[in-house]
Write a structure and sequence with these properties.
Layout (H helix, E strand, L loop, with lengths): L6 H25 L9 H25 L7 H29 L1 H8 L6 H24 L5 H24 L7 H38 L1
Length: 215
């Protein structure tokens, strides 16, 4: 007779299930939204691309920091780069779908003259994403040293996440309000906690450990 898994052995599975549930629930709720009945395919694709992009922000910093169980650090970094590419693709689909649906409104948003305030934050998040891609190119060409690149990357990541959350919360669309607030809150907490741990807590512990070792 097989023994039941101990809480410790079940923890990785529970973590992955919790993340999967937090990411997919808003997408499932949006799929049953009555607003979809009156939208064309391009707009629907654009909307779901935006929701998926927001959901991917939940696991992106976790892959970068290597927090997720069952993954080798090198594998986690590869997943981080892959998720980054998926986020970029989602943004392209989001903007492209909106342009097909309404070119004048999309151009007004990109030129920061749209009357809707949420469009400004969407453009800011997109600009941050483009700057992140530029940083990656510079890093691959060895133009930037790693400490500077990492600091700029972290600052841009926080700005992108913040602008995306404000953008999402101001839109009255297919996402359920409760699931949207919960996902946005989870993304903000995970991003800030990861940056705080990686940039402040762990370096501080390392310095204290080195000091105690030298003494």
């Amino acid at each position: 007779m097989a023994s039941r898994p101990t809480p410790k052995s079940a923890r990785p599975t529970l973590i992955w299930l919790a993340l999967l549930g937090a990411m997919t629930m808003p997408i499932i709720i949006a799929a049953f939204s009555p607003y979809l009945a009156y939208r064309d395919p391009a707009y629907i694709i654009a909307g779901f691309a935006g929701i998926i992009c927001l959901a991917l922000f939940l696991i992106q910093p976790l892959f970068a920091a290597g927090y997720l169980p069952g993954l080798h650090p090198m594998g986690a970094r590869r997943w981080h780069r892959g998720i980054g590419s998926a986020i970029f693709l989602c943004v392209v689909l989001h903007i492209g779908g909106l342009y097909i649906t309404s070119p004048p409104d999309t151009l007004d948003a990109l030129m920061l003259v749209a009357p809707t305030p949420f469009s400004v934050y969407g453009v800011l998040a997109t600009l941050g994403l483009l700057l992140t891609a530029l940083l990656l190119i510079l890093r691959r060409k060895r133009t930037l040293r790693y400490p500077l690149w990492r600091m700029l990357h972290n600052v841009l990541a926080l700005g992108i996440v913040g602008a995306t959350i404000i953008h999402a919360l101001q839109i009255q669309g297919t996402m359920g309000p409760i699931s949207k607030w919960l996902l946005c809150g989870a993304v903000l907490v995970v991003t800030c906690a990861t940056l705080l741990d990686q940039r402040l807590i762990r370096p501080s512990r390392a310095r204290r450990h080195a000091l105690n070792h030298n003494n």
